[in-house]
TrEMBL record:
Biased composition (Polar residues): 222-235
Biological process terms in GO annotation: extracellular matrix organization; proteolysis
Protein name: PLAC domain-containing protein
Chief localization: secreted
Keyword Cytoplasm listed: no
Protein's organism: Culter alburnus
Length: 649
């Protein structure tokens, strides 16, 4: 036994019953070795950590192990730009266990798996399988592809192993830079699972002669030599076989099959029977014999019908307007244990149901379109070849005008085209003569308009007509001699008073008498009955731009001995708004000195020095007293005025 357990203390008769049962079991197993494994031999549902309470399971899946019984292989495969198709990236050797293959991030690539013989397992022959369980190389492989919208995780393939042949991992390349993480373990030496040993026929019922060691029933503390003996050690006290039990557990019936088609499973039910009569008896009579417990066996019914497996719709073929979406529809049939794997079959196997659509119409949004917003304009020329235009715009599905790139330029309607108005023919056209003569007396002229016209619509330059054939525009007229005719006579306008901005200009206006072609200046009063022409007018040569403006100087701050006066200076445009474009070098001063002359004291005849030595009074600083200010008024006044000026400065 690979794992020895300390047995509890039992009473003498209890030990004898157990010894009898074990001896009978050993005898039956030697006489009738089992042809089928017990149910838990194939039970893959129990993980490597179950039943290992209180101990740590190492990387090899061994309870309380140190990881030395296997070798871990792992790594990350970084792939660059490849051609579209299948690319082999990893070989997984035979015997591999705890296999895990994972895309590090979601991509449009797919993982694929083949056996060493080239048989496709997952996503082979350009057929993308649905996520699920697949059986190959002696193990169950789980293929997962997370939801494409909510998950960012990539595809994954996991398997408990061990594999019985080499597997080849491929990537179906469709998007650059795929990254795949892998890991698996390989046992260094054959490892005996302590938990499967405790329940398998191979450990309990060896195929060669062996001996079983039982604890000493008289040992009250439950200790025995079992803890230090080898499993194949021959005991010093052999056990005498007991008679075969009278009652035993026998398989009587089964539960219904779990699958209505294909391969399923069912549970085998046991009953306690009397060996001699094979009649069913109460179960407590078999309490001293081993109960194998419920067993599960496979069951098969009619084959499952084929079905249509529908893939996901592709993206719409057009970003706007009507397009198409495609999806893969294949006929599949379940196979393998419990119907957990599928295989692609001919479409004729699915004829009993209607095949789903593989193509559908899609439209993400309405495309922008061209719209003609106006009719053609008139031709640009009255005759000959010209051009005409119309307005063509690109409009989105909301009716708003967008850039032309939003529409198909190949379908853009013309917005400019040539137009032919026929051969040009030109002729001189003229108006009637004016009724008034240009002069009130003596010789004058009458006028009319003469133009070169084409197509009776537009006037064109005169050089299109023959200048020699042009009709006269002036005709002489004479209203008789001029005698004593009064009129205002004006001279030429003079120069504008300002080089820029607004100014004024003037001219001479005189009253003249015209007599037989002679002009004579006379008094303005004689022409007072006639409207007098203006002798002055405003003029404007050009804009001055920004220039400096200033106000008048203020009053001087002092009347003598030097003061200062100020004025405001601004840079203004022609419209009298503030500007910063004036030349700073030409800015007028806004402050200057004034009244720099010496102050002349006012002479007060009553203010005189009445003391002959007032200089001493000033030096002694006695002017602060009113007596001395009166006695030495002139001297003290000069001192007081000088001190005042000094304080002001």
């Amino acid at each position: 036994m690979a794992c020895l357990m300390q047995l509890p203390t039992w009473r003498g008769h209890q030990w004898r019953l157990i010894q009898h049962f074990l001896q009978m079991t050993l005898l039956l197993s030697l006489l009738c070795p089992p042809t089928e494994p017990v149910p838990w031999d194939n039970d893959s549902s129990s993980g490597p950590g179950e039943g290992c309470e209180g101990f740590q399971v190492d990387v090899c899946g061994v309870c309380a192990g140190d990881g030395s019984s296997c070798e871990l292989f792992s790594g990350t495969l970084f792939l660059s730009v490849l051609s579209v198709g299948y690319h082999k990236i990893l070989d997984i050797p035979s015997g591999a266990q705890r296999i895990k293959i994972q895309e590090t991030q979601k991509t449009r690539n797919y993982l694929a798996l083949r056996t060493a013989t080239g048989e496709s397992v997952i996503n082979g022959d350009w057929v993308i399988d649905r996520p699920g369980h697949f059986y190959a190389a002696g193990t169950q492989l789980t293929y997962k592809r997370p939801n494409e919208i909510r998950s960012r995780a990539g595809e994954s393939i996991t398997a408990p192993g061990p594999t019985n042949q080499e597997l080849h991992l491929f990537v179906i390349y469709q998007q650059p830079n795929p990254t795949v993480y892998y890991e698996y373990i390989l046992p260094k030496d054959p490892i005996t699972d302590t938990y499967s040993d405790a329940y398998s026929y191979s450990s309990v019922l060896p195929l060669v002669e062996s001996h079983i060691i039982f604890p000493d029933p008289e040992n009250s503390d439950g200790e025995s030599s079992m803890g230090s003996s080898h499993p194949n050690q021959v005991p010093t006290d052999p056990i005498t076989p007991e008679p075969v039990p009278q009652y035993s557990w026998v398989a009587m019936t089964t539960t219904p099959c779990s699958a209505t088609c294909g391969t399923g499973s069912r549970q085998v039910l046991f009953s306690c029977v009397e060996r001699a009569t094979q009649t069913t008896v109460p179960g407590d009579l078999c309490s001293y014999t081993s109960h194998s417990g419920p067993q599960v066996e496979e069951c098969q019914s009619q084959p499952c019908p084929a079905f249509w497996d529908v893939g996901e719709w592709s993206e719409c073929s057009k970003t706007c307007g009507p397009g198409f979406q495609y999806r893969q529809v294949i006929c599949q049939r379940t196979q393998g244990h419990h119907g957990n794997s599928t295989v692609v079959v001919a479409t004729s196997h699915c004829d009993n149901t209607e095949m789903p659509e593989t193509t559908t119409v899609c439209q993400l949004k309405i495309c922008s379109e061209w719209q003609i917003r106006s009719d053609w304009t008139e031709c640009s020329v009255p005759c000959g070849v010209g051009q005409r235009r119309r307005e063509v715009v690109c409009v989105d599905n909301l009716g708003d005008i967008v850039s032309d790139e939003e529409c198909n330029m190949a379908l853009r309607p013309q917005d400019l085209q040539n137009c032919d108005k026929g051969v040009c023919a030109s002729s001189w056209f003229y108006s009637l003569w004016s009724e008034r003569c240009s002069a009130d007396c003596a010789e004058g002229s009458r006028s009319r308009s003469v133009v070169c016209m084409m197509s009776q619509t537009n006037s064109l330059p005169l050089d299109n007509c023959d200048e020699e054939d042009k009709p006269d525009e002036l005709m002489p007229c004479d209203l008789g001699p001029c005698t004593q005719r009064l009129e205002w006579y004006t001279g030429a306008w003079g120069q504008c008073s300002s080089e820029c901005g607004n100014g004024t200009q003037s001219r001479g206006v005189v009253c003249v008498v015209q007599n037989n072609g002679q002009l004579e200046v006379t008094s303005d009063d004689r022409c007072s009955h006639l409207p007098r022409p203006p002798s002055g007018q405003t003029c404007y040569l050009k804009s001055c731009g920004a220039q400096w403006y200033m106000t008048e100087w203020s009053s001087c701050s002092r009347s003598c001995e030097g003061g200062f006066r100020v004025r405001e200076v601004r840079c203004l445009r022609d419209d009298q708004t503030t500007s910063h474009d004036c030349d700073p070098a030409l800015e007028p001063a806004n402050q200057e000195k004034c009244n720099t002359h010496t102050c002349t004291p006012q002479i007060d005849e009553s203010c005189r020095d009445m003391y002959y030595n007032c200089v001493v009074v000033v030096q002694a600083r006695l002017c602060v007293y009113s007596y001395y200010r009166t006695t030495c008024c002139a001297s003290c006044s000069r001192v007081i005025e000088r001190d005042t000026l000094h304080r002001i400065r």
